[in-house]
Fold:
Amino acid sequence: MMGKYLLLWVVVLSIPACSVFSGRAGVNGYEVVSEPQANQDTATALDIVFIYRKELLAQLPDNAPQWFLNRAVIEGKFDTQMDVLSIEIPPGDLIPKTKLKGKQKNAKAVLLYANYLNAAAQQPINVSAFTIPQIILQPDKILVIETGTSLFRRLFKK
Structure:
């Protein structure tokens, strides 16, 4: 019986390692939940940035206002090293689980920039460790969990 549990743990622990050993982020899709009153009751622009060279991470802005101000220049400069998926979502809306397509699945890292009004929520979020991140837009912050995490755990994670 102990052998079955040990084998199960080995299998469970090796799944995230697959993306680590392959050198790519583990992201295969995303979901966005915009709670009522999200971003102080303002529509939120989200950019999901798929990075194909890890060295690029150090060259990207460390806050969302700088990202959105300079996005066109950054995209022009690094057009073959990254892709940007831009989304706008109003409070109280949902973008259901969406699978990534083509080259995006091979990204080495995946960052999320959101044009939040609250300065504390303006930092880029690295979602590379998630398989299908659920991006939850709250009134003054952004929460990212793995899609499928129970509601009970999500409520008490705040």
Notes: The two ends are 37 Å apart (CA to CA). The mean pLDDT is 84. DSSP finds four helices and eight strands in the chain.
